[in-house]
């Protein structure tokens, strides 16, 4: 066994730092690894060579800033992660490797609210089918990231609000899916996973403080502070949909009046257009009509944007993020919704916070949450399995 402060334990710690940096970023040049970890270029070079010889990382020649460089990523054979995203009306599953490559992905319609048992049956079937179709051995699966459309209670692991998914009352989503698949399952709400997805693959790349706003059947925010998802002690941080805009406004499902959600979520917005538009209107269709010039849809989307902007201004005053990313169908409206959001931020946020903020549409569309579920596994998994494969024969085992 190694002693604290020994050369062996220091080497182990340096291995962990390099693997963790590459695991989180997907791929980094050796110079970027040195900057990220604080290790010297020579130390990074030696560690990368050791990891490459052990089959843990792959190294390819590339260029950075016009100069030749070596790009390091985890080996595609080092392990497989699964992402499962439950939306209110869909199920999406993705299979990826530790090099941040998506190997297979599929979505299908599903009334998630109706029955948790049916939802998990369908998820189990789709996961196993995609693994088989990818030609991957199931024992390569390291873990599963699971997204649900509601806050997760940190202590119990169950949904924190039964009004959101009444058919899931008392269900622990992580335990349920882990029992079916036989691997660790990490669970979070859809807004947090959307934030992770955009942070790793999309419009949040390169920043450490952002808010991902998802507007669908409800309104939620995934908050990233110093590069990490902030959940709060009870797991309900980011419930921006329940900021009060009007104390005399419509009654919200949470029991309060005039919440932001009652002015922006689809269930409240779509009825405003029923008398002037054909039946069966969806937010996706409203966005399409607005982009085509429909005056009613354009007005509704602008109003929604202004209301969202009020909530974003509150976030700016409290947390001072550098970027806000808008997800969900509404993001497809582009400047029709982003312009009004920025106008409200300019009006209600502290000027210094508003000046530092950029408001962008999500780059991943409906894939943000499932890719965030993959990123969740990469965030939560330990490095010991990967490092054990990198240790040369005869090296003492670590605990």
Describe this structure in words.
With 399 residues, the protein is α/β, with parallel strands linked by helices. Helix 2 crosses helix 3 (41-53) and helix 10 crosses helix 11. The chain has 14 helices and 13 strands.
List keywords for this structure.
globular, disordered C terminus, 5-stranded mixed sheet, single chain, 40% helix, 399 residues
How is this structure best summarized?
The chain has helices at residues 7-25, 30-37, 41-53, 116-133, 173-181, 190-201, 261-264, 266-269, 283-291, 295-319, 335-348, 351-356, 368-380, 384-390, and strands spanning 27-29, 57-64, 67-74, 80-86, 90-97, 102-109, 141-148, 185-189, 210-215, 219-225, 228-230, 323-327, 358-361. With 399 residues, it is α/β, with parallel strands linked by helices. A hairpin with a 4-residue loop joins strand 5 and strand 6 (102-109).
List the helices and strands and how they pair.
Blueprint lengths: L6 H19 L1 E3 H8 L3 H13 L3 E8 L2 E8 L5 E7 L3 E8 L4 E8 L6 H18 L7 E8 L24 H9 L3 E5 H12 L8 E6 L3 E7 L2 E3 L30 H4 L1 H4 L13 H9 L3 H25 L3 E5 L7 H14 L2 H6 L1 E4 L6 H13 L3 H7 L9
Parallel strand pairs: 4-7, 7-8, 9-12, 12-13
Antiparallel strand pairs: 1-3, 2-3, 4-5, 5-6, 9-10, 10-11
Helix pairs in contact: 2-3, 6-13, 9-10, 10-11
